[in-house]
Every structure is written in structure tokens, then in C-alpha cells.
């Protein structure tokens, strides 16, 4: 029997809510698991640079995920708050995410310098550097939304759309960097068998949820123009 339009709408909203809840759990659970693996006193000690960098990137991923999910109508933790409050929290989380990324980048760079190792010679290192630079530019671009008069030939709606789209690209770069980090010797030694595949699923789940959110925002804007 065919589903009614109302039933389909409810089912769709329920699926989006479930996917968003999963994204929240993954965003919090994965950094926590990495912190446990890399905690002082464990077999993989903090003096090693990879755990430090991976932990920082994990926090970067958590903060970015929550910063983007704030605007989700189904899964935002601040649904009852005004958009002004959401924007401020979004800014705060994004800045913290950038600081975490810079911390990880600084730690790994300094550690390689002390040990006389080459910088940015792996795909993970190059992707991480690109992600940090892109995130810095994205935060700078966000200033235009606070002061849209700086872009006289652009409407606020268009600025929001481009900011969301470029933010999605930055988020996917961060997820790619995270996944490359999970291919490192430290991580593949610490996390084996099915646990490794489950860990790989974490950034995939959150990226799919974020992509769905951005695409829905784009479709909503297109419908509102007609």
C-alpha cells in the first residue's frame, strides 16, 4: 500500500532526526575513544606525536560537527533558542575547532623539528595542513556574514549559501584528514579488526548527515525563489 504524503513526511523527519542523533553520539564518542587510547599511562604514550595530533583532530571534528548541527531543524541542541544565539554559539565552536587544529599542527611540527624529521611528507600531513588553512579562511569568510555590507554586490542569502557550501568542503577535508590519520601505524596498531572499520565509519556518518543538512538548505532556498 502506498504511503500518504503526510506519512512520508513524518518518516523522512524521523529518519533525519535519527541520523542527527547518531551524528551527535559519534561526534562525542569518537574523540572520547581516542582520548582513552592515547591517555597517559597507556601503551601508546603521549610523548608520541601521532596520538597528540589525532586527538586534536578528533576534537576539531567534534567541535565542527556540533557547530554545523546547531542549524539543523531536527537535531540541533539549541532548537528553542533564537538564530542570533545559534550564530554566536556556531562562531564560538568554530573558533575552538580552529584552535584545536592549530594546536595539533603546532605539536606535530615542533615534534618533527626536535627529532629532525621532514615536515608534511605524508598524505595525512598534507591534508591536515590544507584543512587547517582552509578552516582559517572559512572563519575569515564568516566575518562577511556578520558584516554583509562589506560585499555590496552580494545578497545576504547568497552569502549564507556560499558560506554553508564552502563550510561543507572544509568539513569533508577535516574528515578526510581524520581518516588518513586512522591509517597511521599508531592507530592501526591500537585499533584492530572490526573496531578499525567501525572507527572509519564515524567520519563517514557525520559527513553524510552534514551533507544532507546543507543540501536541504540549498533545496529550501531554491523552492523559496519560485
What does this molecule look like?
The protein is mostly helical and 226 residues long. It has a single domain (25-39, 47-224), classed as Four Helix Bundle (Hemerythrin (Met), subunit A) (Up-down Bundle). It has 7 helices and no strands. The longest helix has 33 residues, at 5-37. The model is unreliable at 43-47 (pLDDT under 50). The chain crosses the membrane at residues 21-40, 91-110, 122-147, 168-188, 194-214. Keywords: Electron transport, Heme, Iron, Membrane, Metal-binding, Transmembrane, Transmembrane helix, Transport.
Task: Please provide a brief summary of the model.
77% of the residues lie in helices and 0% in strands. The chain has 226 residues and is mainly alpha-helical.
- Give me the oligomer status: single chain
Helix content: over 70%
> What percent of residues are in strands?
under 5%
C-alpha termini separation: 32 Å
Q: How many DSSP-defined strands?
A: 0
CATH architecture: Up-down Bundle
Query: How many domain modules?
Result: 1
Mean pLDDT over the residues? 82
Total number of helices = 7
The CATH topology annotation reads as Four Helix Bundle (Hemerythrin (Met), subunit A)
CATH class: Mainly Alpha
**SSE order:** HHHHHHH
User: Stretches where pLDDT falls below 50 for ≥5 residues?
Assistant: 43-47
Shape: globular
Largest sheet: none
Radius of gyration: 19 Å
Please identify the structural class as seen in this structure: mainly alpha
Membrane topology: Multi-pass membrane protein
Transmembrane segments: 21-40, 91-110, 122-147, 168-188, 194-214
GO molecular function, one term: transmembrane ascorbate ferrireductase activity
Domain Cytochrome b561: 12-221
Amino acid at each position: 500500500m502506498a504511503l500518504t504524503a503526510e506519512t512520508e513526511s513524518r518518516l523522512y523527519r524521523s529518519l533525519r532526526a535519527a541520523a542527527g542523533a547518531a551524528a551527535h553520539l559519534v561526534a562525542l564518542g569518537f574523540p572520547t575513544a581516542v582520548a582513552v587510547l592515547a591517555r597517559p599511562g597507556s601503551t601508546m604514550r603521549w610523548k608520541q606525536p601521532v596520538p597528540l595530533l589525532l586527538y586534536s583532530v578528533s576534537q576539531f571534528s567534534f567541535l565542527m560537527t556540533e557547530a554545523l548541527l546547531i542549524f539543523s531543524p531536527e537535531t540541533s541542541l539549541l532548537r528553542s533558542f533564537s538564530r542570533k544565539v545559534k550564530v554566536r554559539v556556531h562562531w564560538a565552536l568554530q573558533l575552538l575547532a580552529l584552535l584545536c587544529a592549530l594546536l595539533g599542527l603546532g605539536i606535530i611540527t615542533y615534534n618533527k623539528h626536535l627529532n629532525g624529521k621532514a615536515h608534511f611528507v605524508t598524505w595525512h600531513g598534507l591534508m591536515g595542513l590544507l584543512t587547517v588553512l582552509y578552516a582559517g579562511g572559512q572563519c575569515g569568510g564568516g566575518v562577511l556574514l556578520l558584516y554583509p555590507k562589506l560585499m555590496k554586490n552580494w545578497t545576504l542569502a547568497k552569502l549564507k549559501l556560499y558560506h554553508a557550501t564552502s563550510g561543507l568542503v572544509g568539513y569533508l577535508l577535516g574528515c578526510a584528514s581524520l581518516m588518513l590519520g586512522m591509517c597511521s601505524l599508531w592507530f592501526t596498531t591500537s585499533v584492530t579488526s572490526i573496531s578499525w572499520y567501525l572507527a572509519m565509519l564515524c567520519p563517514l556518518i557525520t559527513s553524510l548527515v552534514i551533507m544532507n543538512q546543507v543540501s536541504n538548505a540549498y533545496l529550501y532556498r531554491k523552492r523559496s525563489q519560485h
